[in-house]
Amino acid sequence: DGLIPALLTGKVDMVMSSMTITDERRKTVDFSDPYANAMLGILTHKGSGIKSVEDLNQKGRRIAAKIGSTGYLYAQNNLKNAAVTALPDESACVMEVATGKADGFIYDQLTIYRNWQKNPETTEAVFIPFQKVEPWGVAVRKGDAKLLNALNAFIADYRKQGGFDRLTEKHLKAEKAAFDQLDFKWFFDMTPAQNQ
Length: 196
Known about the structure:
- By secondary structure, this protein is of the alpha+beta class.
- 39% of the residues lie in helices and 20% in strands.
- It is built from 9 helices and 10 strands.
- Helix 4 links the parallel strand 5 and strand 6 (83-87).
- The longest helix is centred in the last third of the chain and has 16 residues, at 145-160.
- The chain starts with a helix and ends in a 14-residue tail after the last helix.
């Protein structure tokens, strides 16, 4: 929740940490062209019985969500029967789920997959898509055309030169294989989906 204020006050020149492009955010910042797609997933406490997002929307269910994230906003807007706890970072949310203090943590599928792999004894993951793809971009201050144009040129060139493919091969190979097996659109695949 402090990233956009830091940008607006000049403490930083751009924000590119899992920054989902939303209409609400566009009111205060400009965004680069999207460089990645994300969808929300759920990290659940093992044995909680949660198999879908609807299972979380029940009285007595506890949801951990990172403050200001789209997972937090989704929970606030769509899971009104559950208790939503806003926490400062991803690791705190994972800890709440792993220790059984929360039933689920809503965040992007890639992060949920990685945290499930790190905590297989205490957590499970739900990847059934329950919302549209969320594009990620780099946020800059309104009107900073010079930086925005440079970012867009870099993103286009990096993609053309196979940079995102190299990142996938070097750092996300297991995740890419899992997404392929689940028949999910890959994180860096920016081709338009046929059924969106």
